[in-house]
Design goal:
Blueprint lengths: L13 E6 L5 H8 L2 E8 L2 H11 L5 E4 L5 H11 L6 E4 L12 H6 L4 H13 L3 E6 L10 H11 L4 E9 L10 E9 L20 E6 L2 E6 L6 H7 L10 H5 L29 H7 L15 H9 L70 H7 L13 H10 L3 H27 L1
Length: 440
């Protein structure tokens, strides 16, 4: 067992270490919740450059490299020094989790080396708390055996009390349905149990249902007694507790693709052409005078034709038969597969956002969703808005694909802020309990 570090020596409030930081969404949300991130690390150079651009001013040391490398670990430990960490945050990739409940197999699978090092960093630094974020599929993988294995590993033979829960970021003001599993651990000597962020809307988030409309389909809000109150809150532009796609990006509808094929993304700002129309837009623009990451990717003619035929909230399955053929023009794209129609893998392709509900979960591709009002892909800035980044948070490193990937892989800052506040409440409760015990 490692020795307990000395008391925190920073005067900047609660102290955090961010592992697998990516572009910095987790750190940004914890910063908004009152934490100072003392150091962060990631292996992606472009994401690291974005992290430094936005966090270096807050005094965070960024370490570029593979966390399994001794040099990277040494730099992280040097940055922490003798400071007692209030929390470690991160979302290590977990592709190699076995469905068999076998500790050695889980920990020694080479695909899980990052998870293994996440655990080892916790063991070495013994933070007061930690948060591990990951995809919700871990909850039921192997009939729950993988979840149980992770809880056991993170507990470090009783050093930590660990619990997990699946939450949707949309319940915390993020205009995107994004389910994630959170593992929160609290050091046992704090004598406080883990707790999670709470939202009054979590059990009744509005959604869409597909209904026939003549020979076509339409998408409307699913009406139920549980969602009456939350739907009213969602559709109120003066509230930012629940946020629709239109409330998030409706002030940027004027953006259009460049007439020329421009492969390199622009780092030049442009001016806002429209005023904000919602509380959420106002909050994201509050400290921004110029709009960055606003260039629109080029788009194929056949994609435009398909998008014009798809209803808001719809996707590939709403295309008429004549538009489901592979090529609509003489311009060929993609590998020749010997098919005359689009394959079944396109089932979730050509997804057109619905303006009056949350976005689908954003992934790392620019074409994972399309605009609800004009036939085009979203800009990196619109991706960032749907991820709850402020407009002052700039993505200026890497090629175009890298920038979408940086946003898509990030923890939405408003979700992270809610998590940070929950962790801060745990720490405050532990402090109160300690003071009470000393007074007795």
């Amino acid at each position: 067992m490692s020795k307990t570090p000395s008391r925190r020596q920073s005067q900047n409030g609660l102290i955090c270490l961010d592992l697998f930081s990516g572009a910095g969404g987790f750190s940004e949300g914890f910063r908004q919740a009152g934490f100072h991130t003392i150091a962060a690390t990631d292996i992606d150079a472009s994401a690291g450059a974005t992290y430094e651009l936005n966090h270096k001013k807050h005094g965070t040391k960024f370490v570029l490299g593979d966390i399994s490398h001794p040099r990277v670990q040494e730099q992280l430990f040097d940055a922490v020094g003798k400071t007692e960490l209030d929390t470690i945050i991160g979302g290590p990739p977990c592709q190699g989790f076995s469905q068999v409940r076998n500790h050695d197999r889980l920990m020694n699978d080479p695909r899980n080396k990052l998870y293994r090092h996440y655990v080892s960093v916790i063991r070495h630094l013994r933070p007061r708390t930690f948060v591990m974020e990951n995809v919700p599929g871990l909850e039921n993988l192997g009939g729950g055996a993988v979840r149980a294995q992770i809880l056991e590993d993170l507990a470090l033979d009783g050093e930590y009390q660990v619990e997990c829960k699946v939450l949707d970021a949309a319940a915390f003001g993020v205009p995107q349905n994004r389910l994630r599993i959170l593992f929160i651990g609290v050091r046992s000597d704090l004598k406080t149990l883990p707790s999670f962020p709470h939202s009054p809307f979590a059990e009744a988030l509005p959604s869409l249902e597909r209904r026939p409309k003549g020979d076509r389909w339409s998408y409307r809000h699913r009406k139920s007694p549980e969602t009456v109150r939350t739907l009213a809150k969602l559709l109120d532009p003066d509230s930012a507790e629940l946020v629709t796609v239109e409330q998030a990006i409706g002030d940027l509808t004027w953006l259009r693709p460049n007439a020329k094929l421009v492969r390199k993304p622009s780092n030049d700002p442009t001016e806002y052409e429209h005023e904000h129309t919602s509380a959420y837009q106002r909050a994201r623009r509050m400290k921004s005078s110029e709009l960055f990451n606003a260039d629109v990717p080029s788009i194929r003619e056949d994609t435009v034709t398909r998008l014009r035929s798809i209803p808001q909230g719809g996707n590939f399955r709403d295309l008429p038969e004549e538009l489901a053929v592979r090529y609509l023009t003489d311009k060929k794209w993609g590998p020749e597969l010997g098919r005359e129609t689009l394959s079944r893998k396109y089932f979730f392709a050509y997804r057109k956002l619905h303006p009056q509900v949350f976005s689908w979960t954003l992934n790392t591709k620019a074409d994972c969703v399309f605009h609800y009002g004009v036939p085009r892909a979203l800009t990196v800035r619109e991706f960032a808005r749907l991820h709850s980044f402020d407009d002052t948070y700039h993505f200026l490193a890497g090629d175009r694909h890298s920038r979408y990937r940086q946003v898509g892989n990030a923890v939405p800052p408003l979700f992270a802020r809610a998590i940070g506040k929950a962790v801060a409440a745990i720490l405050a409760k532990a402090h109160e309990s300690k003071q009470l015990a000393l007074a007795l």
